[in-house]
Amino acid sequence: MIFLDAAATTPVRREVLEAMWPYLTGDFGNPSSHHTLGDTAATALASARDSVAAVLGCRPGEVTFTSGGTEADNLAVKGIALARQAARPQLNRVVISAVEHPAVEESARYLERFHGFAVDVVPVDGTGLVAPESLRAILRPETALVSIMYANNEVGTVQPVAELAAEARHAGVPFHTDAVQAAGWLPLDTGTLGVDAMSISGHKLGAPKGCGVLFVRGRTRIEPLIHGGGQERGRRSGTENVAGAVGLATALTLAQARQEEQRRRVAALRDAFINAVLTGVPGAVLTGHPTRRLPSVASFCFPGTSGESVLLELEREGVVCSSGSACAAGSDAPSPVLTALGYEAEVAQTAVRFSFDAAVTEEDLNTAAGAVRHAVESVRALGG
Ligand code: PLP
């Protein structure tokens, strides 16, 4: 099997599992306990926080461990907007882009349904990019928060985050970015990016599912969503997932260390794969930006097919990939991301996304490109 669905999830790396192992077994203490086992766990948690902070170029106190990317996005969007509204009730609008993950989009809709917020959606162009001028135009004196993702999970387009964050800063509005897909591939220095909050998820990086991080800058006010014993400096109560935090920190550090070399190698393989698919499959369309895209994502529409049938055919040929986001898998509805990019519903329904991890090889991608050609041909021969 050739696994080309790394944007959905990745296996846990051996080094990560080895780093986690002690905290799942002998050193199983609760970091809040006042005995040696507790101290050992607290030390491991602090060290994981230090490692994450080193990658993000921030202070350890600005790192909050969460149960994953979804919780980090919820905490950022709801937590910052609600804290700002509580301090100044006229701050009752949030800005998101038209291509956000549901974790951001639905958090904004929740604010709209239950807390009197209006949601302003900044459009993207046909490649999925948000123009800084479009953000500037949509900002209002009542805007409490801007949340625009770093890299898109369906088409891989990478936003000009530093420029967008600068627009928000200029208007005095905190800026959150969902960096779940960017982490491990793109620079994450929060100072250079100029973001006030940033979400990361462990399982996209070779750490287990169910662990994530939210960076929140310095004095940015944030209302917790989970109340209880006041762990994570009151921002996220609940006994910490010590092994998960250690795993995430290890995976992030490893990915960061190899980033430049890895990014170049995988981007070159991606480009060769895109080229092979575009030349081998008549009518194939690359979705997303041709160059400003994640090294790890190649996404297409194959007009005259159904994306789901192509996926089934590919799996029969030993290639595992997806139609877009794992959350929408199996759904017949056209992807809101592709709709936002301007694709008609019948073309959007033909989407297939190939996403790689750092271990991908040229041979895998050559085989996959051949399988794509066959799969699309057979689906078309059967009338889509
Ligand atoms: N944001 C983006 C861009 C994602 O791709 C995902 C996962 O697919 C998430 C958020 C949610 O992360 P998690 O699966 O850790 O909840």
UniProtKB/TrEMBL annotation:
Residues annotated as domain Aminotransferase class V: 2-366
Single annotated GO MF: iron-sulfur cluster binding
Pfam families: Aminotran_5 (PF00266)
InterPro entries: Aminotrans_V_dom, Aminotrans_V_PyrdxlP_BS, Cysteine_dSase, PyrdxlP-dep_Trfase, PyrdxlP-dep_Trfase_major, PyrdxlP-dep_Trfase_small
Cofactor dependency: pyridoxal 5'-phosphate
Reaction equations catalysed: (sulfur carrier)-H + L-cysteine = (sulfur carrier)-SH + L-alanine
Keywords, in A-Z order: Iron, Iron-sulfur, Metal-binding, Pyridoxal phosphate, Transferase
Classification via PROSITE patterns: AA_TRANSFER_CLASS_5
TM spans (from-to): none
EC number assigned by the record: 2.8.1.7
Family: Belongs to the class-V pyridoxal-phosphate-dependent aminotransferase family. NifS/IscS subfamily.
PANTHER family per UniProt: CYSTEINE DESULFURASE, CYSTEINE DESULFURYLASE FAMILY MEMBER
Protein name, UniProt field: cysteine desulfurase
Native species: Pseudarthrobacter oxydans
